[in-house]
Design a protein that fits this description.
Strand content: 15-25%
Number of strands: 15
Largest sheet: 6 strands, parallel
Shape: elongated
Oligomer: single chain
């Protein structure tokens, strides 16, 4: 898979640019933009962009901007980012003056040819900066641009942004809005790979899918139940499991539930705008399942179902409760399941379909609503 990149300007985008001389040449001039650290941490945790810093530092290494003045604040900035698990793939610094017209200086791309020739997805990449030259760099790279803050460009350059409307994807004063924008571009998808000595599992989930599925756990009845989850929850779902079935089914079922829960947690993101709750009463012949779900941020399960058989197919019935316990814990949801009936196949299938219907309700994102469905400010 080709790698996507966030090309990030430095001064005015990551840290404040001093208006008096436009040089961060002392530690006491180093000041981070509001929310930039938490925002970049969120991006690195939730999205798969490489971070690449691209900065023009006029005359770096000359008498007007000695190296000894530049590196202490630069190194201090990078150390703060590293401490927050924000790691840059590379840092590209152009040292020329604007009047030189060097091809290495933004919006020139001479410093960035490795990304134009390598295995990178530039169409899916973004340049984030505070100047017209950053958006023009995006155009020259074949990427999209995000303009941050109150531009310090002159009026002619600001007017030129109108010519870059096909490139300019977002104009904002907030790093938090950049995060929301990038998450929206991503869609509510997740890819989880979980490998232990007992199982090797890959889960792909699209919360806004159409009910397609491709599940292969090595346990036919579990595949059938996951298919129900996808179809009745309007999810696109693939769960691929290679497990130690020569021992028994426990590890494969438990680890599949863990990875599936992690996928839901990842795909839901910060949960802004979602309904949050779902409840459903689902009959299946003589069986009846009553299910309620809350994407609360807290993993909790209440499970009451009279299962009598040892197995349905190769699926041990004792693992139904354990499956949903593991799922609830890692999806960070509260799940209440009560079911009755005589046929264990019907009871279990009614439960899975009921959970699917609850997920369909709870994941629903209300158009135009970006609020968090909680008075606590966090889910």
């Amino acid at each position: 898979m080709k790698k996507r990149i966030l090309f990030l300007d430095r001064d005015g985008t990551l840290i404040h640019e001093p208006p008096e001389d436009f040089q961060v040449d002392a530690l006491d001039k180093l000041a981070f933009l509001p929310a930039v650290i938490t925002s970049l941490h969120h991006i690195t945790q939730k999205l798969d962009y490489l971070l690449v810093m691209v900065t023009n530092q006029d005359g770096l290494g000359t008498d007007s901007f000695p190296e000894a003045d530049f590196w202490p604040p630069q190194n201090a900035m990078m150390k703060v980012f590293e401490q927050e698990d924000i790691n840059f793939h590379k840092v590209h610094i152009d040292r020329t003056f604007k009047a030189e017209g060097a091809p290495t200086r933004k919006p020139g791309t001479a410093l960035l040819t490795e990304y134009m020739q390598g295995d990178y997805d530039l169409e899916g990449s973004f340049v984030v900066g505070d100047r017209h030259s950053d958006i023009l760099l995006a155009k020259n790279l074949g990427a999209k641009g995000i303009l941050l803050g109150e531009s310090t460009d002159d009026q002619d350059q600001i007017n030129n942004l109108k010519e870059l409307e096909g490139t300019l994807a977002l104009e904002t004063t907030s790093w938090k809005e950049i995060v929301s924008f990038l998450l929206d571009q991503e869609g509510r998808k997740a890819h989880i790979q979980r490998t232990t000595k007992e199982t090797d599992i890959q889960v792909r989930l699209d919360l806004d899918g159409s009910g397609t599925y491709q599940n292969d756990t090595g346990i036919g009845f579990l595949d059938h139940m996951l298919d129900q989850l996808a179809r009745h929850g309007n999810l696109d779902l693939s769960v691929q499991v290679k497990g130690d079935l020569h021992i028994d089914e426990h590890h494969s079922i438990e680890d599949a539930a863990i990875a599936l829960g992690q996928a839901f947690s990842q795909a839901l993101g910060d949960k802004r705008g979602i309904t949050r709750y779902g409840s459903f009463l689902l009959p299946m012949d003589e069986a009846l399942a009553q299910v309620a779900l809350d994407f609360s941020g807290r993993g909790y399960l209440v499970f009451q179902a009279p299962l009598k058989r040892e197995k349905v197919g190769a699926f041990p019935t004792e693992m139904v409760e354990h499956f949903f316990q593991s799922f609830a814990e890692h999806a960070r949801c509260t799940l209440n399941i009560q079911a009755s009936g005589k046929n264990d196949h019907h009871i279990i299938e009614a439960i899975f379909k009921g959970v699917a219907q609850c997920i369909k309700q709870a994941k629903h994102k209300m158009e135009g609503n970006t609020g968090l469905p909680s008075t606590k400010g966090l889910l």
